[in-house]
Specification:
Blueprint (H helix, E strand, L loop, with lengths): L9 H17 L21 H4 L3 H13 L8
Length: 75
């Protein structure tokens, strides 16, 4: 891909869907991904793990970790 080229692909679409799922669970806007800030589900104001506990919480954390990973190549 050339510098400044279009970086949208299926990985961006999946992150968008993960953001919608985050919103449905928490009622909070995931806002943006930043290299210098934690992903939405790990921010202090996040309530995603208040809604889901136990073994399912670890599965959900892995889901959000992957979907909200800043580097698109690791999503």
């Amino acid at each position: 891909m050339s510098p400044g080229g279009d970086r949208r692909d299926h990985r961006s679409d999946l992150t968008y869907l993960v953001g919608i799922y985050y919103f449905l669970l928490t009622g909070r806007d995931p806002q943006y991904l930043s290299e210098n800030a934690p992903p939405p589900h790990l921010r202090t104001e996040s309530t995603v793990f208040d809604q889901v506990t136990g073994p399912k919480a670890m599965q959900l954390k892995r889901f959000f970790d992957r979907g909200f990973f800043y580097d698109i190549n690791y999503r």
